[in-house]
Amino acid sequence: MANACTHLDEARVFDTDKDYCDECIRSGSRWVHLRMCLICGHVGCCDSSPNRHASRHFRDTGHRLVRSIEPGERWIWCYADEVVAGEVPS
């Protein structure tokens, strides 16, 4: 299996009721989709959003695993390995 993520053991799956990006709210910006950090629970906007706060969180903290918190999506992305690393367990 090529390009497998080597960081999944760092994931701590957090549930969240948050449906917004704090940074976008503070700056009056809009977002497209939301991503949640599986290390600390930070919720930020995706790379299709103008400010890309989830990616910025990775660059600032080194927290490499995020999940989509869009309805019906369960995938996990690893920024370090640049791969879909798996799915959030049911």
UniProtKB/TrEMBL annotation:
Pfam hit, one: zf-UBP
Domain spans labelled UBP-type: 3-90
A molecular function (GO) term: zinc ion binding
Name of the protein this chain belongs to: UBP-type zinc finger domain-containing protein
Lineage of source species: Bacteria, Pseudomonadati, Pseudomonadota, Betaproteobacteria, Burkholderiales
